[in-house]
User: Fold this.
Amino acid sequence: MSGNPLAVAEPWDLVADGYAEFAPAIMQPFSDCAIEFAALTPSSQVIDVAAGTGLLSLLAAPQVAQVQAIDFSGSMLARLEAAAQAAGLTNIETRVGDGQALPFDDEQFDAGFSMFGLMFFPERAKGFAELFRVLRPGATAVVSSWAPVQDAPLMRLMFGAFRAADPSVEEPQPNYLSLENPEVFQSEMRSAGFEGVSIQRHSTSLAFADAGQLWDTMARSSAPLVLCRRKLGEQVWAERAAVIQDYLAEHYRPHHPLSTTAFLGIGHKPS
Assistant:
Protein backbone atom coordinates (compact mmCIF):
# COMPACT_ATOMS: atom_id res chain seq x y z
CA MET A 1 0.00 0.00 0.00
CA SER A 2 1.25 3.44 -0.95
CA GLY A 3 1.82 6.13 1.63
CA ASN A 4 -0.40 8.43 -0.44
CA PRO A 5 -3.37 9.35 1.79
CA LEU A 6 -5.54 9.66 -1.33
CA ALA A 7 -4.93 6.02 -2.28
CA VAL A 8 -7.62 4.83 0.14
CA ALA A 9 -11.38 5.29 0.06
CA GLU A 10 -11.98 7.27 3.28
CA PRO A 11 -11.17 10.82 2.10
CA TRP A 12 -13.24 10.30 -1.04
CA ASP A 13 -16.16 9.02 1.01
CA LEU A 14 -15.94 12.16 3.15
CA VAL A 15 -15.85 14.54 0.19
CA ALA A 16 -18.46 12.80 -1.97
CA ASP A 17 -21.26 15.34 -1.55
CA GLY A 18 -19.13 18.38 -2.30
CA TYR A 19 -17.32 16.58 -5.10
CA ALA A 20 -20.59 15.72 -6.83
CA GLU A 21 -21.78 19.31 -6.52
CA PHE A 22 -18.67 21.28 -7.42
CA ALA A 23 -16.14 19.09 -9.25
CA PRO A 24 -18.01 19.06 -12.59
CA ALA A 25 -17.22 22.74 -13.09
CA ILE A 26 -13.54 21.83 -13.25
CA MET A 27 -13.75 18.29 -14.61
CA GLN A 28 -16.35 18.38 -17.38
CA PRO A 29 -14.20 19.94 -20.14
CA PHE A 30 -11.63 17.17 -19.68
CA SER A 31 -14.30 14.46 -19.68
CA ASP A 32 -15.83 15.93 -22.85
CA CYS A 33 -12.41 15.75 -24.54
CA ALA A 34 -11.86 12.17 -23.38
CA ILE A 35 -15.19 11.05 -24.82
CA GLU A 36 -14.37 12.66 -28.16
CA PHE A 37 -11.05 10.81 -28.34
CA ALA A 38 -12.77 7.46 -27.74
CA ALA A 39 -15.12 7.73 -30.74
CA LEU A 40 -18.01 6.03 -28.94
CA THR A 41 -20.94 4.43 -30.76
CA PRO A 42 -24.46 3.36 -29.68
CA SER A 43 -23.19 -0.22 -29.32
CA SER A 44 -20.12 0.65 -27.21
CA GLN A 45 -19.51 -1.13 -23.91
CA VAL A 46 -17.59 1.29 -21.67
CA ILE A 47 -15.68 1.00 -18.41
CA ASP A 48 -15.05 4.01 -16.17
CA VAL A 49 -12.29 3.14 -13.67
CA ALA A 50 -12.09 5.13 -10.42
CA ALA A 51 -15.33 6.71 -11.59
CA GLY A 52 -15.92 8.80 -8.49
CA THR A 53 -19.29 10.54 -8.65
CA GLY A 54 -19.44 9.54 -12.28
CA LEU A 55 -19.18 12.68 -14.37
CA LEU A 56 -17.70 10.81 -17.31
CA SER A 57 -20.14 7.92 -16.91
CA LEU A 58 -23.09 10.33 -16.94
CA LEU A 59 -21.79 12.11 -20.05
CA ALA A 60 -21.01 8.89 -21.93
CA ALA A 61 -24.13 6.91 -21.05
CA PRO A 62 -26.51 8.62 -23.54
CA GLN A 63 -24.10 7.78 -26.37
CA VAL A 64 -23.40 4.09 -25.63
CA ALA A 65 -24.99 0.73 -24.84
CA GLN A 66 -23.69 0.40 -21.28
CA VAL A 67 -21.24 1.92 -18.80
CA GLN A 68 -19.64 -0.05 -16.00
CA ALA A 69 -18.51 2.41 -13.31
CA ILE A 70 -16.12 1.08 -10.67
CA ASP A 71 -14.67 2.91 -7.67
CA PHE A 72 -13.43 2.00 -4.19
CA SER A 73 -15.70 4.64 -2.60
CA GLY A 74 -19.24 3.47 -2.09
CA SER A 75 -20.26 7.00 -1.12
CA MET A 76 -19.04 8.34 -4.44
CA LEU A 77 -20.93 5.64 -6.34
CA ALA A 78 -24.10 6.38 -4.38
CA ARG A 79 -23.99 9.95 -5.76
CA LEU A 80 -23.50 8.52 -9.25
CA GLU A 81 -26.50 6.21 -8.87
CA ALA A 82 -28.67 9.09 -7.67
CA ALA A 83 -27.57 11.32 -10.54
CA ALA A 84 -28.18 8.56 -13.09
CA GLN A 85 -31.68 7.98 -11.71
CA ALA A 86 -32.45 11.70 -11.77
CA ALA A 87 -31.32 11.87 -15.41
CA GLY A 88 -33.33 8.80 -16.38
CA LEU A 89 -30.22 6.84 -17.32
CA THR A 90 -30.67 3.09 -16.93
CA ASN A 91 -27.50 1.85 -18.63
CA ILE A 92 -24.96 2.66 -15.90
CA GLU A 93 -23.99 -0.17 -13.56
CA THR A 94 -21.88 0.67 -10.51
CA ARG A 95 -19.58 -1.61 -8.57
CA VAL A 96 -17.32 -1.06 -5.58
CA GLY A 97 -13.94 -2.44 -6.50
CA ASP A 98 -10.23 -1.95 -7.08
CA GLY A 99 -8.97 -0.53 -10.37
CA GLN A 100 -5.78 -2.57 -9.87
CA ALA A 101 -7.80 -5.83 -9.94
CA LEU A 102 -10.85 -5.24 -12.10
CA PRO A 103 -13.72 -7.70 -11.56
CA PHE A 104 -14.34 -8.17 -15.29
CA ASP A 105 -13.43 -10.71 -17.95
CA ASP A 106 -10.74 -10.14 -20.55
CA GLU A 107 -11.64 -8.17 -23.69
CA GLN A 108 -15.03 -7.00 -22.48
CA PHE A 109 -15.08 -3.27 -23.31
CA ASP A 110 -14.85 -1.07 -26.40
CA ALA A 111 -13.52 1.96 -24.51
CA GLY A 112 -11.98 2.55 -21.11
CA PHE A 113 -11.51 5.69 -19.07
CA SER A 114 -9.96 6.81 -15.80
CA MET A 115 -10.41 10.51 -15.15
CA PHE A 116 -8.05 11.70 -12.42
CA GLY A 117 -8.26 8.34 -10.66
CA LEU A 118 -5.54 5.99 -11.88
CA MET A 119 -3.01 8.74 -11.15
CA PHE A 120 -3.52 8.01 -7.40
CA PHE A 121 -3.17 4.22 -7.61
CA PRO A 122 -0.46 2.74 -5.34
CA GLU A 123 0.60 0.57 -8.29
CA ARG A 124 -0.15 2.47 -11.49
CA ALA A 125 1.36 -0.31 -13.61
CA LYS A 126 -1.37 -2.66 -12.39
CA GLY A 127 -4.00 -0.04 -13.15
CA PHE A 128 -2.80 0.38 -16.74
CA ALA A 129 -2.38 -3.39 -17.18
CA GLU A 130 -5.88 -4.11 -15.91
CA LEU A 131 -7.39 -1.44 -18.13
CA PHE A 132 -5.58 -2.97 -21.11
CA ARG A 133 -6.72 -6.49 -20.17
CA VAL A 134 -10.44 -5.73 -20.10
CA LEU A 135 -10.45 -3.85 -23.40
CA ARG A 136 -11.25 -5.53 -26.69
CA PRO A 137 -8.71 -5.45 -29.54
CA GLY A 138 -8.97 -2.11 -31.28
CA ALA A 139 -10.43 -0.39 -28.21
CA THR A 140 -9.35 3.05 -26.99
CA ALA A 141 -8.29 4.03 -23.48
CA VAL A 142 -8.20 7.60 -22.17
CA VAL A 143 -6.58 8.37 -18.81
CA SER A 144 -6.20 11.85 -17.32
CA SER A 145 -3.81 13.33 -14.79
CA TRP A 146 -3.21 16.82 -13.51
CA ALA A 147 -0.27 18.78 -14.84
CA PRO A 148 2.15 20.30 -12.31
CA VAL A 149 0.72 22.96 -10.00
CA GLN A 150 3.01 25.52 -11.65
CA ASP A 151 0.91 25.15 -14.82
CA ALA A 152 -2.37 25.95 -13.03
CA PRO A 153 -2.99 29.55 -11.89
CA LEU A 154 -6.01 28.33 -9.91
CA MET A 155 -3.88 25.98 -7.83
CA ARG A 156 -1.05 28.50 -7.45
CA LEU A 157 -3.53 30.98 -6.01
CA MET A 158 -4.84 28.35 -3.61
CA PHE A 159 -1.36 27.39 -2.41
CA GLY A 160 -0.58 31.06 -1.87
CA ALA A 161 -3.65 31.22 0.36
CA PHE A 162 -2.63 28.06 2.23
CA ARG A 163 0.82 29.51 2.80
CA ALA A 164 -0.70 32.70 4.21
CA ALA A 165 -2.55 30.57 6.78
CA ASP A 166 0.38 28.25 7.46
CA PRO A 167 3.85 29.47 6.44
CA SER A 168 5.17 25.90 6.57
CA VAL A 169 3.09 24.99 3.50
CA GLU A 170 5.20 24.76 0.37
CA GLU A 171 3.94 24.76 -3.19
CA PRO A 172 4.34 21.22 -4.53
CA GLN A 173 7.25 20.79 -6.88
CA PRO A 174 6.79 18.81 -10.10
CA ASN A 175 6.98 15.07 -9.50
CA TYR A 176 8.86 13.80 -12.51
CA LEU A 177 8.22 10.17 -11.56
CA SER A 178 4.44 10.63 -11.69
CA LEU A 179 1.96 11.13 -14.53
CA GLU A 180 2.71 14.86 -14.24
CA ASN A 181 5.63 13.94 -16.51
CA PRO A 182 4.30 13.27 -20.05
CA GLU A 183 7.27 11.01 -20.82
CA VAL A 184 6.49 8.80 -17.80
CA PHE A 185 2.80 8.85 -18.72
CA GLN A 186 3.52 7.69 -22.26
CA SER A 187 6.04 5.07 -21.13
CA GLU A 188 3.65 3.52 -18.60
CA MET A 189 0.82 3.26 -21.13
CA ARG A 190 3.16 1.67 -23.67
CA SER A 191 4.50 -0.76 -21.09
CA ALA A 192 0.95 -1.97 -20.47
CA GLY A 193 0.64 -2.80 -24.17
CA PHE A 194 -1.09 0.26 -25.60
CA GLU A 195 -0.04 1.43 -29.06
CA GLY A 196 -0.29 4.80 -30.78
CA VAL A 197 -0.01 6.46 -27.38
CA SER A 198 -0.22 10.23 -27.29
CA ILE A 199 -0.23 12.54 -24.28
CA GLN A 200 -2.21 15.69 -24.94
CA ARG A 201 -2.24 18.82 -22.84
CA HIS A 202 -5.58 20.50 -22.21
CA SER A 203 -6.53 23.52 -20.10
CA THR A 204 -9.83 24.87 -18.88
CA SER A 205 -10.71 28.08 -17.11
CA LEU A 206 -13.38 28.85 -14.58
CA ALA A 207 -14.43 32.02 -12.84
CA PHE A 208 -16.10 32.62 -9.51
CA ALA A 209 -18.52 35.29 -8.39
CA ASP A 210 -16.18 36.22 -5.57
CA ALA A 211 -13.50 34.86 -3.25
CA GLY A 212 -16.12 33.28 -1.01
CA GLN A 213 -17.50 31.16 -3.82
CA LEU A 214 -13.98 30.16 -4.84
CA TRP A 215 -13.15 29.00 -1.31
CA ASP A 216 -16.47 27.21 -0.86
CA THR A 217 -15.96 25.32 -4.11
CA MET A 218 -12.44 24.21 -3.24
CA ALA A 219 -13.06 23.45 0.44
CA ARG A 220 -16.08 21.24 -0.23
CA SER A 221 -14.80 19.34 -3.26
CA SER A 222 -11.14 18.73 -2.37
CA ALA A 223 -10.25 15.45 -0.67
CA PRO A 224 -6.87 16.79 0.55
CA LEU A 225 -8.62 19.72 2.23
CA VAL A 226 -11.14 17.44 3.89
CA LEU A 227 -8.25 15.38 5.30
CA CYS A 228 -6.52 18.55 6.48
CA ARG A 229 -9.68 19.69 8.25
CA ARG A 230 -9.97 16.40 10.12
CA LYS A 231 -6.32 16.51 11.11
CA LEU A 232 -6.39 20.10 12.38
CA GLY A 233 -9.71 20.01 14.22
CA GLU A 234 -12.53 22.48 13.80
CA GLN A 235 -11.06 25.34 15.82
CA VAL A 236 -7.70 25.48 14.06
CA TRP A 237 -9.38 24.84 10.72
CA ALA A 238 -11.75 27.77 11.26
CA GLU A 239 -8.83 30.06 12.14
CA ARG A 240 -6.89 29.07 9.03
CA ALA A 241 -9.94 29.21 6.80
CA ALA A 242 -10.51 32.80 7.87
CA VAL A 243 -6.94 33.73 6.86
CA ILE A 244 -7.33 31.88 3.57
CA GLN A 245 -10.56 33.71 2.75
CA ASP A 246 -8.94 37.07 3.57
CA TYR A 247 -6.04 36.22 1.26
CA LEU A 248 -8.38 35.20 -1.55
CA ALA A 249 -10.49 38.33 -1.10
CA GLU A 250 -7.33 40.40 -1.54
CA HIS A 251 -5.88 38.46 -4.46
CA TYR A 252 -8.89 37.26 -6.47
CA ARG A 253 -10.79 39.63 -8.72
CA PRO A 254 -14.45 38.55 -9.00
CA HIS A 255 -15.35 36.78 -12.24
CA HIS A 256 -11.70 36.62 -13.29
CA PRO A 257 -11.02 33.29 -15.07
CA LEU A 258 -8.39 30.99 -13.60
CA SER A 259 -7.04 28.09 -15.60
CA THR A 260 -6.05 24.58 -14.66
CA THR A 261 -4.27 22.09 -16.87
CA ALA A 262 -4.34 18.33 -17.31
CA PHE A 263 -2.76 15.69 -19.49
CA LEU A 264 -4.91 13.20 -21.38
CA GLY A 265 -3.22 9.93 -22.27
CA ILE A 266 -4.81 8.23 -25.27
CA GLY A 267 -3.83 4.69 -26.23
CA HIS A 268 -5.17 1.88 -28.38
CA LYS A 269 -5.22 -1.85 -27.84
CA PRO A 270 -3.78 -3.56 -30.95
CA SER A 271 -6.38 -5.19 -33.18
In short: The longest strand covers residues 135-146.
